[in-house]
Task: inverse folding
């Protein structure tokens, strides 16, 4: 325990650093410029003059000055008193190890010094996770491990891709996502009219570094689920209307030709590998959670909203699109802020509970359970002794 110690707190570009050292006689303001992983690369003073620069090898070992173009004149190797190093890890100057909260990290070897304490980070779908000392699945250029337990994007603020399949009129009077889109870690895509959003959405759903929020309509046709877009093609005989959905039959396209004849086409549906997926729509149908269970990858968590409750006739009341849009806003904001998933769910539920049709419940967002495969062995043939293969005789 340190007694009668003066604590000097200085802010360096968003990093709060605490020290027991005496405060400087002439304190100054400095700023840090970080890369996509959060590693501080350039430190400047209040006037923008460069105080120090640093570069790192892929697994975090700092590159010394006078290596290549990194000269002392360019401020490489200059003292900056910044304790945060690779991906904001604090480095122990005596051992050279980086403090990753749950354990220490050896940047020279690209390995942690202790096994991963989070057993849930081991995924059978990714053999890289079986090495309990491995750092970010050996992908240090795109991933970081903020707490030493599980690989994530470089910042604790998650990268969020938001897909909105509502037209301008339906979005009127709702919380606008455009303000959140100004953040570096939020991407908002408005699927245009006469366009399918399937290809774009599944590109994000297959990216293990992404979190995905989908705000859309429900689809009550064959293969009940969510609406992924509509396309109308004009022909000399009339119009061909195509509606694409994700539901109990996977990705389904309903085609109505010029004569009004209806046909359906089913496509192979890719697995979902993104980190957290939130689907908010009117009401997806009873079988929708089951298809998500089949599509859910080992590293993914998927949430969808239940109906708001029975209406006056005893039927399940769907969510209004304005409520779905507001819930999508709150979920996106919480995800991008780095809130815990429990907090994200609570904020989404709070927004859904404000719908006029809400029946006073508080748990509208439901997690899709993991898919469990059970194998039943039948018709096992038992060979009589005379038909069993004999062991080879051991020569005397």
Result:
């Amino acid at each position: 325990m340190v007694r009668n110690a003066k604590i000097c707190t200085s802010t360096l570009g968003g990093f709060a650093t605490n020290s027991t050292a005496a405060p400087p006689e002439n304190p100054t303001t400095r700023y840090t410029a970080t890369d996509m992983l959060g590693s501080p690369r350039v430190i400047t003073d209040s006037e923008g003059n460069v105080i120090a620069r640093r570069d790192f090898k892929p697994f975090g070992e700092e590159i010394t000055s006078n290596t290549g173009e990194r000269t002392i004149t360019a401020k490489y190797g200059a003292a900056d008193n910044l304790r945060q190093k690779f991906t904001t890890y604090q480095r122990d100057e005596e051992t050279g190890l980086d403090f990753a909260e749950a354990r220490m990290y050896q940047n020279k070897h690209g390995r942690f010094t202790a096994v991963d304490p989070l057993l849930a980070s081991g995924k059978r779908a990714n053999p890289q996770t079986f090495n309990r000392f491995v750092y970010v699945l050996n992908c240090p250029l795109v991933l970081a491990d903020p707490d030493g337990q599980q690989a994530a994007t470089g910042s604790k603020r998650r990268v969020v891709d938001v897909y909105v399949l509502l037209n301008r009129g339906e979005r009127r009077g709702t919380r606008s996502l455009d303000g959140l889109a100004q953040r570096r870690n939020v991407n908002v895509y408005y699927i245009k009219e006469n366009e399918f959003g399937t290809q774009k959405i599944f590109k994000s759903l297959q990216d293990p570094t992404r979190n995905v929020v989908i705000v859309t309509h429900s689809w009550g046709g064959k293969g009940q689920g969510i609406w992924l877009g509509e396309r109308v093609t004009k022909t000399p005989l009339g119009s061909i209307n195509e509606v694409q959905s994700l539901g109990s039959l996977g990705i389904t396209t309903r085609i109505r030709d010029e004569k009004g004849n209806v046909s359906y086409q089913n496509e192979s549906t890719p697995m979902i590998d993104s980190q957290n997926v939130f689907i908010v729509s009117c009401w997806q149908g009873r079988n929708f959670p089951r298809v998500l269970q089949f599509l859910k990858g080992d590293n993914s968590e998927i949430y969808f909203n239940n109906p708001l409750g029975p209406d006056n006739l005893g039927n399940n009341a769907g969510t209004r699109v304005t409520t779905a849009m507001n819930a999508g806003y709150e979920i996106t904001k919480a995800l991008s802020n780095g809130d815990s998933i429990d907090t994200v769910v609570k904020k989404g539920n709070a927004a859904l509970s404000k719908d006029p049709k809400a029946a006073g419940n508080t748990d509208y967002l439901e997690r899709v359970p993991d898919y469990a495969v059970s194998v039943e062995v039948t018709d096992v043939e038992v060979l009589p002794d005379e038909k069993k293969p004999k062991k080879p005789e051991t020569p005397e």
